[in-house]
Design brief:
By secondary structure, the chain is α+β, with helices and mostly antiparallel strands. The protein contains three helices and two strands. Strands 1-2 form a two-stranded parallel ribbon. Strand 1, helix 2 and strand 2 form a beta-alpha-beta unit. Helix 1 packs across helix 2.
Length: 78
């Protein structure tokens, strides 16, 4: 195997194993949200699609800001 292809191949194996483990432990949802940069998230989207699971991607920084804004709103109302 070409050494340039080894890293993506191993990454794919690890991603697949991680998803299979999560599905075995937590069941089979119809959709999930992925917090990751686009290039990494694409690997999960592809793997989840093979299991018939829809995935929405959120950029981690955007999710953090949205979560913090929600906390501030809740404290302002409470």
């Amino acid at each position: 195997m070409n050494s340039n292809l080894l890293a993506p191949y191993l990454s794919g194996l690890l991603t697949g194993d991680e998803i299979n483990g999560a599905l075995a432990q937590f069941g089979h949802p119809s959709s999930v949200t992925i917090l990751a940069e686009q290039s990494r998230a694409d690997l999960y989207v592809h793997a989840l699609k093979r299991h018939g699971i829809k995935a929405e991607i959120k950029i981690p920084q955007q999710a953090l800001i949205a979560g913090l804004a929600r906390i501030v709103r809740q404290h302002a109302l409470g």
